[in-house]
Amino acid sequence: MQTAQPVRALVLAGGGAKGSYQIGVWRALQELDWHPSIITGASVGTLNGCMFAIGKAKEAEELWRSLEIHDVLDVPATRNPEELNSFFLDVIRSGGLNVEPLGERIDALIDEEAVRRSPIHFGLVMTEMSTLRSIQCPIEAIPQGHLKDYMLASSACFPALRPREIDGVKYIDGGWRDNMPLRLAAAMGATELLGVDVDGIGFVKPNTTGLPTQIVRSHWNLGPTLDFDPTRAARNITLGYFDTLRLFGRFGGTAYAIQPDEEGFLADFASRYQLLLNEISARAPEIDRVEKSARQRTGYPLPFTPNPSAPTRGALAPLELAAERLHVPEDVPYTPKQLAAAFMASFDKDPADRFPALLDGKDNRLVAERALATAVPEEFVTALVSRTLAETPL
User: d(Cα 192, Cα 214) in Å, to the nearest integer?
Assistant: First the structure.
């Protein structure tokens, strides 16, 4: 007896300019041979979702790599912060920005009939302004010829953007009530969900579908919601690509895209790091808690469990934390050894120099350094990683 194939749904959350991240997610999914039968979206997720559904992923990527704020919103050309602040205050008082530039983009890129004919079933959400009721709209519920209106309604991030009026009713951004429309995807027949969270402004409802669900999201800040910038978009596309491949087991790591450790470097690093941590903890017992605190505050996994045969994400965590703290670029893939080398090349003044008493046993400063490590645990872990790598062959 054959097992029924899952009905996969891709659910694209809203987030304005952060939506560039979803382009990288889609590219990775195609490489992974993961193809959705359903796509639902809120706000910018509707634009990306429509283009994916009609086979225009390449055009979508080209758009994001060139998109600037004037292509989306009717804003002045100035970059002067005071002038822009004054402009946006006036905009909010007057009811929101004009989104006609976005409407023109939709006209140029989206063929409504192609969306309706697509084998990928498309749906979007918007919010009724007067009641704040979420309106769930599979494509067949959208009147013929009105897809553009519904997309602009779903994207109307009030109060920054003007509400969209349809048949005498005003609607605002779908993210106001349902920024990750998982339930719409389930109602459209999905049996397996993959959500893409870009940390947009809006309300994400608890997932009550009961369906197998995975969520792709970034460890990194994807930038301001309304700051459309080609350079940031290119970086976000890469992060979306890496994060999706990591979710499906093609990369390791938490923040960085970590390739296989064919040289066994990570196991050696993990062992040396743990020995040094144990040695310091013998002099200052609270340091073990400090190290764990650094991970918890920065989102890295616990506990640290080095395993020479199969190093875990926990073994990578101190190295990634230290690399992030010293701004090692995140849009490049690394082996553990390459990430270590990039970290060691990222500073002129060694972070280990701040903790000579803890790292070298010079007790004349031990009390002060214990207090410093407790106050800024990420700095201490960065110093510990630096000292470990100084004694690890690269």
Answer: 9
